[in-house]
Amino acid sequence: MNVTFRQLKVFEAVARQGSYTRAAEELHLTQPAVSMQIKLLEEQVGLALFEQVGKKIYLTEAGREMHYYSRTIAQELNEAERVMEELKGVQRGRLVIAVASTANYFATRLLATFSQRYKHITLSLDVTNREGLLRHLDSNDADLVIMGQPPSQGLDLVAEPFMENPLVIIAAPGHVLVGEKKISLKRLQQETFVVRERGSGTRTAMERFFTDQGVELSTGMEMNSNEAIKQAVEAGLGLGIVSIHTLALELELKRLVILDVEAFPILRHWYVVHRQGKRLSPVAQVFKEFVLTEGAQTVRMPR
Ligand code: PGA
Q: Best substitution site from 105, 163, 243 to test ligand 1's pocket, by max atoms within 8 Å of Cβ?
């Protein structure tokens, strides 16, 4: 049955109005155009849908059946149109975000606040290190990426900063350097550092900083999570360098101490990033705007 939506729409109007003339007026068509659509529909169906008694038209049995389906199809189409409009309007979108492992300490708070505002969106969050984020950007498979300083070469990126990301040196409360003022970078050379894995933004920033300062650190264990670094430092395995965002709980419980070191903290920033020319979905656009304008206030910086 090769029936068009147009035929069904015309049929539905004629059936409801009980008149070709009134249906034509409603649809802003001429009466012959309406008759033509009904004739085509009847040919496709292979049955008469109306019968004329005197001046009035009535639905045949086939017409009544067809009226039922044409109404259902019209309702489904209206529903589809409404869902598409909602999608355009953020209400039911899907948001795919990838964040640095270090950013995960505040990203969940951002997402929680955002999803309270837009209750019907679906969120997907991937937490990975800087290298993983660069892969996401390369394959363009996330709506937005939250990361530290993005690379200036290679991919064409749009990156906007929204919050500071200070890197600090942490020690166990019993460490000899706790309480010292303005510890020199040279003095740090006598210490062992527990460091993040290669591919971590924290690690890259730390290495660049000490190379620029002409200081060579002795690095001990390498660990691929901030949690592991903090536990190792707390256990006395060395000093650590982490983002202050990872420390809320440990500072509050006095399980770790931030050392007062010259030229510290290393000041970095968090960026919201996507590929140049990417067509952001409406929900991604709204989320990006939210992060840029309210991100820093939404996240509480540990003291
Ligand atoms: P990361 O953090 O160390 O978890 O990769 C990203 C960054 O600071 O750039």
A: 243
